[in-house]
Amino acid sequence: MSSSRSPAPEASEDHTSTAPLTPPEALGRDRPLKGIGYMIAAGLLFTMLDTGVKTLAQDYSPVQVVWARYVGHVVILLAWFVWLGKSSGGAMLKTGSLTGQCLRGLLLLGASTFAYLAFRSLPLLQVYVINFSSPLLVALLAVPLLKERVSWRQAMAIILGFAGVVICVGPVDWRSQPAILLPFGLTLCFALYQLTTRRFGRQDHPLTSLFYAGLAGAVVSSLVVPAFWSSIDPRDLPLFMFVGLMGAASQLTLIMAMRYAPASLVSPFLYLQIIWAALFGFVFFGDVPRPETWIGAALISVAGVMLAVSKKRSSS
Questions:
Q1: Which is it for the CA torsion 186, 306, 156, 197, positive or negative?
Q2: CB 168: neighbour CB atoms within 10 A?
Q3: pLDDT score, position 25
Q4: What whole-number percentage of the chain has pLDDT above 70?
Q5: Please, what's the b/e burial string for 244-257 (b: 16 or more CB within 10 A of its CB; e: otherwise)?
Q6: How far apart are CA 92 and CA 101, in angstroms?
Q7: Angle between the 62-84 and 237-260 helix axes, to the nearest 10 degrees?
């Protein structure tokens, strides 16, 4: 799973020099159907990315796969910035908080590492369902960290969502199945990543935030990957390149969804990843979801939609 499954970083208020991805409010009007279409596409691309990751993780270290994902991410974005030209492309490299962006990148790298380790032994769908509780954890952690308030509707959504997680995981012997803890590490890192995005992401354009998140992951993974490196079979090179391409494409498609429609409208459509994950897991890995997984997925999805609707009401 790519580490970014929730709405993309919030846009900067000043986009005069970064017109290639102007936010909806600057466009003058939303385009809901276009935004929904991009969000559905983003969910499919994320699942394609994670399917490639799970395939590679059977034969290569997850650290090596993480490296390929982030290096490809940065190379593709740099190529796009060059294509935009010196003025617009150069503006994308300017950030109001380099430290904050690096912190975001390290948290996203942690989320990716936990996810790729989990994919080695757990079905795609189970990892997805647990990670979809991250918006609930964000709402919970925002109280002490960002001094935000939780309404009774949001509290009910959080309780319902975490009940779904418990049902999805089921009775587990943590000592004999330690891999089941990995998605929880993913969820915590990703929730903290979203909170730091709220804190620092507003200062920069979404593509700037996306670039530095990828750059931090590429630099750190490049430093440690020699210790985990194994020679790559030439037949696997296209799949490594595919992972890098999907890493950037999925995030960019997510940003496009946010460009054309409000997050509260399009975010629930990302839960269609549950369907994609079940389908891809069955076709490529022979995974048959347990009934408990579907029940947990339903509860978490309902909770996520409740949370999105509650946020929209409280902001209006």
A1: positive
A2: 26
A3: 45
A4: 86
A5: bbbbbbbbbbbbbb
A6: 13
A7: 60
Whole-angstrom CA distances from 55 to 107, 141, 240, 285 are 24, 34, 10, 9
pLDDT the model gives residue 48? 96
- The length of the chain is 316
Whether 240 and 57 have beta carbons less than 8 Å apart is answered as no
Six-digit token string for 179: 């891999």
* The Cα angle at residue 262 between residues 163 and 48, in degrees rounded to 5: 65
Q: Which of 153, 137, 154, 156 is nearest to 195 (CA)?
A: 137
Q: How far is CA 96 from CA 84, 86, 198, 212, in A?
A: 21, 19, 14, 12
Token pair recorded at residue 236 = 């696997």
pLDDT value for 198? 77
> Look-up: residue for tokens 């380099």?
98
Rounded Cα–Cα distance for residues 307 and 310 (Å): 5
d(CA 116, CA 1): 7
3-class SS at 94? coil
Find all residues with CB under 8 Å of 298, minimum gap 6, and list them.
164
